[in-house]
């Protein structure tokens, strides 16, 4: 039996966050993401999501919808899901960059493929685990707010805090010291500077921060500054993870061959979806580098896709998938459920997402 793409629809999912999200790069108060639904001639429907994170990927809601409608849709409509490699080639070659738009379509295709074989996506991809445990992000704020947020997270059962730093590096040291003092020794702390430091500031800051028992530091310096990243990595007692410096498998080749970082944070929105994420993870594994799977500010649709990927692969050892936990409401049926930091799959083949609740969904274009 074949399963041919006959329809690609786009829409928008909109959900408020519980509280404002702040990093060294941006402030967010809601999720407003593009959604894609792909239907095949045998009645399977796959769903995907793209987060417009303009300061990281350069994509906006409008650019994502246009990339899908004007470039991806004509390139892959009529193709058979089982001609998978050719389908991926067309998806990735029909337009340069636009990785989040591609990720939404890639995850919808994987959703269909796993449904076709009757398996939950994490089993289809490798099935190493059947749940994952996420950290929780503490937004960049004044010290007292960050300490209060950290204590609230620990109270909710989280034992791994991802603390946003990358502001004034002296204040960052104060932030981390205060949080470590208040949460005690048994909570893991990882830091994300979101490119906020210069290489020498990073080396100084990390040398001071190391005494607060830091698991890793994400993206200390500018994304394009691979030499600076390498210098920090070589001079840091704490493992350094590349995030914004690695979008695609080609970027991963560079980071790995330069040994510019110790670990890689894979995000579907940066790499263009699960197909490329698996390539990055395989290269990292061969180089002895572990990966984290993270997300942007996303709803449970694309967070489910990332969680399925992370659960499938033994070399993905860390999970930064609290995005859907940060939502004020649950906009979809099925997919994933959080029990404190643990993310479980609700069952069903593929991504396992049921319906997007009407009040959170705006259809954009339902034409064939
Ligand atoms: Mg990051």
Account of the protein in words:
The protein has 368 residues and is an alpha/beta fold. The chain has two domains: 5-118 and 357-363, Enolase-like, N-terminal domain (Enolase-like, domain 1), CATH 3.30.390; 123-355, TIM Barrel (Alpha-Beta Barrel), CATH 3.20.20.120. It contains 13 helices and 17 strands. It has helices spanning 54-57, 61-76, 84-93, 99-116, 121-125, 143-155, 169-183, 199-209, 226-234, 249-258, 268-271, 274-286, 300-312; strands spanning 5-22, 27-40, 45-50, 131-133, 136-138, 160-164, 188-192, 214-218, 240-242, 263-267, 291-294, 316-320, 332-334, 336-339, 342-345, 353-356, 361-365. An eight-stranded parallel sheet has the order 5-6-7-8-9-10-11-12. β1 and β2 form a beta hairpin. α7 (169-183) runs parallel beside α8 and α10 runs parallel beside α12. The site of magnesium ion has 6 residues, from loops.
Reconstruct the topology from this structure:
Elements: E1 5-22, E2 27-40, E3 45-50, H1 54-57, H2 61-76, H3 84-93, H4 99-116, H5 121-125, E4 131-133, E5 136-138, H6 143-155, E6 160-164, H7 169-183, E7 188-192, H8 199-209, E8 214-218, H9 226-234, E9 240-242, H10 249-258, E10 263-267, H11 268-271, H12 274-286, E11 291-294, H13 300-312, E12 316-320, E13 332-334, E14 336-339, E15 342-345, E16 353-356, E17 361-365
Parallel strand pairs: 5-6, 6-7, 7-8, 8-9, 9-10, 10-11, 11-12
Antiparallel strand pairs: 1-2, 1-17, 2-3, 4-15, 13-16, 14-15
Helix pairs in contact: 2-4, 6-7, 7-8, 8-9, 10-12
């Amino acid at each position: 039996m074949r399963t041919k793409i006959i329809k690609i629809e786009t829409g928008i999912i909109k959900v408020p966050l519980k509280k404002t999200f702040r990093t060294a790069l941006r402030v967010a108060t809601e999720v407003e993401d593009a959604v894609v639904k792909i239907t095949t001639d045998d009645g399977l429907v796959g769903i995907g999501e793209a987060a417009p994170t303009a300061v990281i990927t350069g994509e906006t809601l409008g650019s994502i919808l246009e990339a899908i409608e004007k470039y991806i849709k004509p390139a892959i409509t009529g193709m058979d899901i089982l001609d998978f490699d050719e389908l991926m080639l067309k998806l990735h070659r029909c337009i340069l960059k636009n990785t989040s738009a591609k990720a939404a379509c890639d995850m919808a295709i994987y959703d269909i493929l796993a449904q076709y074989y009757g398996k939950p996506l994490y089993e289809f991809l490798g099935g190493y685990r059947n749940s994952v445990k996420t950290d929780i992000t503490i937004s960049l704020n004044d010290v007292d707010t960050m300490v209060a947020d950290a204590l609230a997270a620990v109270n909710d059962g989280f034992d791994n805090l991802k603390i946003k730093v990358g502001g004034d590096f002296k204040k960052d040291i104060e932030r981390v010291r205060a949080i470590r003092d208040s949460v005690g020794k048994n909570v893991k702390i990882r830091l994300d500077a979101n490119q906020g430091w210069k290489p020498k500031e990073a080396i100084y800051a990390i040398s001071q921060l190391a005494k607060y028992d830091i698991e890793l530091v994400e993206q200390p310096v500018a994304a394009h500054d691979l030499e600076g990243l390498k210098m920090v990595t070589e001079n840091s007692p704490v493992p350094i993870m590349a995030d914004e410096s690695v979008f695609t498998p080609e970027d991963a080749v560079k980071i790995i061959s330069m040994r510019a970082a110790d670990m890689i944070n894979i995000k579907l929105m940066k790499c263009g979806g699960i197909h490329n994420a698996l390539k990055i993870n395989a290269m990292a594994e061969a180089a002895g580098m572990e990966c984290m799977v993270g997300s942007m500010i996303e709803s449970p649709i694309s967070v489910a896709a990332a969680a399925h990927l992370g659960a499938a692969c033994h070399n993905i050892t860390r999970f930064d998938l609290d995005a859907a936990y940060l939502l004020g409401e649950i906009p979809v049926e099925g997919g994933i459920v959080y029990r404190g930091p643990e993310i479980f799959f609700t069952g069903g083949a593929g991504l396992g997402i049921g319906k997007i609740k009407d009040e959170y969904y705006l259809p954009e274009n339902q034409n064939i």
